Amino acid sequence: MKFRAFILTILFLKCSLLQADELKIYVIKPRIKINWSSPATLGITSALNSLRKDYAPIGHFAVELNCSQTLSNGVSKVLTGMERVSKKESKRITLKEKLGLGSLFYPFRGALTTAKLSKWEIEKATKQKRLRTIIIPVSKVDCHRGLLFVEKWIQHGSYNIYGGGRDSLRGEGGGCAHFMSSIFKVVTGKLPPKEWSVHLNVPKDLIGDGDKVRVPFTRILTRFRWVKKGVETVPYEIADTNTVHKWLKKRVKKEKVYYYTDHLPNFDRENSTIESIKEAAEVSELSKPLEPFLFQQETSPEIEAAVWESIILK
């Protein structure tokens, strides 16, 4: 009887761990490190990565929510990320319209990556040693609010806009880094660590708008500093996959999975176990009610249903 009770306890613990509420962030770095030190180095390294038909030419963030509480539509687990509908079309627009560094802000056509494609990209990146995974245990309430954010993102058609410099938390759209950062903020109540991001002042004379202002790529290649006397700038911030990989290497040497605890108040990581991290997260409600979405893109119940079906983690 004691042995049977022991086995049942082990099974119960395993089930509890499987049902733990968590946000997973998959960090896929590009083949060639993006160099943000100047407009020229950014342009060169981005171009070199784009020459090959790679699935993540500038890196990619995918997010996975595993929640014990379901939405009204029955969904409790999703795997997705923001992507451009066509990388080839985006490249054509950037060059033809002479966007210059306006490509950092341009509203390309976006979509939510399907769970099937996300799984393929994660497996591919694992084989190529380009993947690191961050697991963030959260409470049932916090995880559910993450799902509610995804629900709003779909209801408002926010995924239709892929680009930077947008109010992603209020549904204006965004790239994979902005989408990831928004969900991180929703479930933890905090922004991702500053060390994950690059912070730039982009010169206005290098920002094309695809209409009246055109900036040839050659002008980018001749600018070796961000700040130029007499030129106004626009602040720009984005989480960078190489930067996150570097941040992770300082914390774990060989491990490819990192359990994040910085969101947990007064938590002693030095004397922790995975189980204690999850237990601390379960009793820590860190999120706040979602901010209202201020933007609405064209959508329909049929489109929304199709998007949900594509990102559900089965």
Detailed description of the structure:
- The chain contains ten helices and ten strands.
- The chain is α+β, with helices and mostly antiparallel strands and 314 residues long.
- A five-stranded mixed sheet has the order 3-2-1-6-10, sandwiched between helices. Strands 4-5-7 form a three-stranded antiparallel sheet.
- Helix 5 (140-155) packs antiparallel against helix 6.
- It is globular.
- Residues 1-18 have low confidence and may be disordered.
Explain briefly what this protein structure is.
This protein has helices at residues 2-18, 39-51, 87-96, 115-127, 140-155, 176-188, 217-221, 241-249, 274-282, 301-311, and strands at residues 22-28, 60-66, 77-80, 82-84, 108-112, 131-137, 161-162, 197-203, 233-239, 257-259. It has 314 residues and is of the alpha+beta class. The two termini are 36 Å apart.
